[in-house]
């Protein structure tokens, strides 16, 4: 389905040329138009930690329609080299249930990331995309720390964040899961980028 799904006419909220991969584009997620594509991703077993296995297309659409109505939470369809590659969500921890279980700051910015199934594996794809997403999050000068909250059972996602340079925080109990908090501050990301360059 993704091979024929065209997003070229949509305006990007953010663009970043990723070395070796092509252009990363973040497009505002359109709940109705993108529902079939997103439902196809979130219903797979590999996306179990996203929490939507067994949900109908309309239930998925309605969640993203609600998200789209908020000023503090945003959903994006990610494309790389013109191909849809995943869902990226941002949020203000102070205006999210997460902010009730750790000492959230106004300078924090939260993220959720779901990558679509890869047609063919690409070495360091996740790390390269993650670098572009962190650059987007920290392009707001009012933000100086990225927060992520993978399910504590999702060792694969936690490992990716830690290898990237995120620091582990506490495990916290949220209504739908036990989460492992991870943090990446602007200074540490800047040092990582300098080492990569």
CATH topology grouping: Aminopeptidase
**CATH architecture classification:** 3-Layer(aba) Sandwich
Point out poorly predicted stretches.
Answer: none
Strand order of the largest sheet: 1-2-3-4-5-6-8-7
How large is the radius of gyration? Answer: 16 Å
Topology:
Elements: E1 12-18, E2 22-28, H1 31-42, H2 57-68, E3 73-80, E4 83-91, E5 108-115, H3 125-137, E6 145-148, H4 155-164, E7 167-174, E8 177-185, H5 186-196
Parallel strand pairs: 5-6
Antiparallel strand pairs: 1-2, 2-3, 3-4, 4-5, 6-8, 7-8
Helix pairs in contact: 1-2
Structural write-up:
It is a single chain. This protein has helices at 31-42, 57-68, 125-137, 155-164, 186-196; strands at 12-18, 22-28, 73-80, 83-91, 108-115, 145-148, 167-174, 177-185. With 197 residues, the chain is of the alpha+beta class. The protein has one domain (2-196): Aminopeptidase (3-Layer(aba) Sandwich), CATH 3.40.630. The chain has an eight-stranded mixed β-sheet with strand order 1-2-3-4-5-6-8-7, with helices on both faces. Helix 1 packs across helix 2 (57-68). The model has no long low-confidence stretch (mean pLDDT 93).
């Amino acid at each position: 389905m993704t091979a024929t799904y065209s997003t070229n006419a949509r305006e990007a909220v953010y663009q970043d040329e990723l070395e070796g991969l092509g252009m990363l584009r973040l497009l505002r997620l359109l709940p109705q138009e993108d529902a079939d594509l997103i439902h196809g991703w979130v219903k797979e077993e590999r996306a179990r930690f996203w929490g939507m296995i067994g949900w109908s297309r309309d239930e998925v659409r309605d969640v993203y329609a609600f998200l789209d109505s908020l000023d503090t939470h945003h959903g994006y369809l990610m494309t790389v080299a013109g191909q849809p590659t995943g869902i990226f969500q941002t949020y203000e921890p102070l205006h999210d249930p997460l902010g009730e279980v750790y000492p959230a700051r106004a300078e924090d910015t939260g993220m959720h990331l779901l990558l679509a199934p890869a047609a063919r594996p690409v070495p360091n794809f996740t790390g390269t995309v993650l670098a572009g997403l962190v650059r987007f999050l920290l392009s707001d000068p009012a933000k100086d720390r990225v927060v992520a909250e993978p399910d504590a059972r999702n060792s694969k996602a936690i490992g990716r964040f830690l290898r990237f340079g995120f620091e582990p925080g506490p495990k916290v109990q949220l209504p739908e899961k036990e989460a492992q908090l991870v943090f990446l501050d602007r200074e540490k990301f800047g040092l990582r980028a300098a080492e990569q360059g």
